[in-house]
Amino acid sequence: MATISFLGDISLNNKYNYLYKNREKPFDKIKNFLHKSDLVIGNLECMAKGKQGENLLKKPRLKTNTETLNYLKDLNISLVTLAHNHIYDNLLDGYNSTVQFLDKNNIMHLGSGLSEKDAKEPILKEICGIMFCFLNYVTHDTNPSLPTNAEVYLNWFDEIKVIKDVKKYKNQVDYIILLLHWGGKLEGGYYPDFNQPEIAHHLIDAGVDLIVGGHSHTLQPYQIYKGKYIFYSLGNFCFSDIHSDGIIKEIDQKKRTESIVLSIFFNKNSCSVEMIPISSKNLYLEFDGMVLEKYKKRIFYFRIIKKIKILWEIYYLKCRYIDTTIFYFLGNDRKFFERLKLLNFGRIKRFLKG
User: Which residues share a beta bridge with 229?
Assistant: First the structure.
């Protein structure tokens, strides 16, 4: 039997640098559990900063210190996905610094590269006598904002291309696992885009055995389709407030600090799933049973919403505009009138664009 654990979005930005410098251990309460897995996978969304500057087309931008990436070793991570919308935040120098750290520490990576061919390469790996194929893609609606002269390539999601890739490797492995950075239309939402289930079902029909998604920064429901699991988003595993362009983008403590560690136990012809609920308390992770209780309710409502598009459209408007507006003015103890004074037409325009 092979045990693989999947983590959500990992961003060791800003305050995590301070914690690392002061030898703090924000993952101590959960790391022993992860060290029992044969393979731990996470989406490394925050790249190391370099000396060449930043991609000013991208707002906001994430960055961390190279040494802070050592937290990945505490978590027993041995594979990270790099097909995401922050891959070029720190230009080529930051990308290379990150990849060099990963290679030096025997942490595999996929979904990006210095050539289109490298970006498209899957990872084929045998674990406990079981062969796996890992494929990683990012959708355009997550807005990577790459400049035309970008020197880093991403493995872009295209349904026809993905199905072709799946069929190419299907007969070579026991399991095909799809790792997706998707759902940009509902970033911050508790439910996926209305079309995502249909796309996911097509991919399962083509031969995918498991889909694990991210990008929403929230813990979204899962489905079982033809006996295969689809996790639309695992949410944030760890994420600090973002300091970018002189603005602090706070992490919504209600939505974006809850996640699950997804542990799957694979045999040759079957697998079983365990969901371990966690939450971040001032950047320190701990097990949190209440997350699972809320997750069960979310899954129940999702079964209704996905069948009736008008309900999804109402939820979309609430999530995209009403909830976002409320958090902008009142979230995390923000003072309403102080924030009101900071508004200008440029910021309103950026705000409405998400």
Answer: 210, 224
The fold of the 2-307 domain, in CATH, is Purple Acid Phosphatase; chain A, domain 2 (3.60.21)
- Residue 30, classed as helix, strand or coil, is helix
Q: What is the pLDDT of residues 210-225, one digit of tens each?
A: 999 999 999 999 999 9
Span 102-107, average pLDDT: 98
- Backbone angle region of 307, left / alpha / beta, with phi > 0 → left and psi within -120 to 50 → alpha: alpha
pLDDT digit string, tens, across residues 4-31: 999 999 999 999 999 999 999 999 999 9
Cross-strand bridge partners of residue 222: 231
Domain ranges of the chain: 2-307, 309-354
Are 261 and 5 in contact by the 8 Å Cβ rule? The answer is yes
DSSP annotation string for 188-228: T-SS--TTHHHHHHHHHHHT--EEEEESSSSB--EEEETTE
